[in-house]
Amino acid sequence: MLAYNHARARIMRWVFWSIIFGVSGGALCMFSKNGGPIPVNKNLWSVSYCLVTSSLALAIQAALYFIVDLKTNNLWSVSYCLVTSSLALAIQAALYFIVDLKTKWGGRPLYYAGQNALFLYIGSELLKRNFPLHWALSAPTHAQLLATHAAAMLIWLAVGVALHRKRIFITL
């Protein structure tokens, strides 16, 4: 951001790297889902998968930067987008290392929540203003909101684990 002060330069670089990552990821999987030396569909975090998703992330970031920052007077800052996307990539890399390479963790309890993801999402949206998931705060601080939302997330995670233990899977 400091090296490239102009919006056009930023967008051009994001689009350029998006194309490079997309072509590299596509070449590794021979532009198919299950083909090539490193298929996209082989592991959740194969090299081709990371390159293709990074390509899409950069393209979306360039589009959002153009739409949000340049057209609507900085509702989202570019630094916010960069920090959140870099955190997502760092978490993805750490989980790939822990789960796939070192096989130290099997993904539980997140695996259990994933078995009923749609049910948990709809339930959280429908009940997000009810007591155990939300409590009234007069002048909420960031820490209070974080605690509220973390507690709600843990409750929904417990619901996911309970449904999995009872072998209840709600799908479409």
Automatic annotation (TrEMBL):
Keyword annotations from UniProtKB, A to Z: Membrane, Transmembrane, Transmembrane helix
- TM region positions: 14-32, 44-68, 74-98, 142-163
Keyword Membrane belongs to the record: yes
Q: PANTHER family, alphabetically?
A: LD22376P
Q: What is this protein called?
A: DUF5009 domain-containing protein
**Which organism's genome codes for this protein?**
Helicoverpa armigera
Q: Which gene encodes it?
A: HaOG214676
